[in-house]
Design brief:
Helix content: 10-25%
Radius of gyration: 16 Å
Order of helices and strands: HEEEEEEEEEEEEE
Number of strands: 13
Largest sheet: 13 strands, antiparallel
Number of domains: 1
Number of helices: 1
Structural class: mainly beta
Amino acid sequence: MIRVALVACLFSTTAVLFSASCESAAADGPSFWHVKAIHSDGALLPIKAIDKDGNLHDVKAIQDAGNNHVLDVKAFVDGAVYPVKVLNGTDRFAPVKAIGPKGLILDIKAITPDDEKLDVKGVGRAGSLYHIKALSPDREMYGVKAVSRDGHVYDVKGVKMSEEEVEMTLEGVEVRAHIKALPQVP
C-alpha cells in the first residue's frame, strides 16, 4: 500500500512539473503519441505489435484530456485496442507483449530500416519501475520513448502497482507490470 502511495505521489509531483507544457495538447481530447526506440546512431525505430501472421500493428501512447502525467501504451489491432504489459516469465529480461482476447499474445518489436525486428523487454527494475529497452542481436540496448506531435518526449516504463510478483492475470496471462509513458524527470 505504501508503494502505491509513493508511486501516486511521484506521478502527482511530475504532473505539476509538466502539466503546463502539455495542457493545450490534451485539452481537445485524446491524442496519440508515437512509440519509438532510439538507436545509438540517433535513428527513431518504430515500435510495432506483430501478430501470428507477421502483420505489423501500431503501438501508441494515449494522452487523455487532462492527463499529462501517465499515458497508457496500447496496440491497435484491426480496430481493436490491446493493452501492452510486462509479462511474467523466467528469462533474464522480462517480455513485453500485447494481450488480446482469449489470451492472444502479440510480440512487441522495434523495426530497423532494414526490417530487422528487435525484441522489446524489461531489462531492469528500480523500485516500482521496469526499464523498457529494445535489444539488438548483440544485446545493445536502445531506449523506448513516446513522442508527441509537438515534440514532447516521455519515457516508456513498466509500472508495478503492487508488491506481488504477478500483478494480475489478464485474459489468462500473468502480468508483472503495466506499460506506461511517463514524463522525463530532470
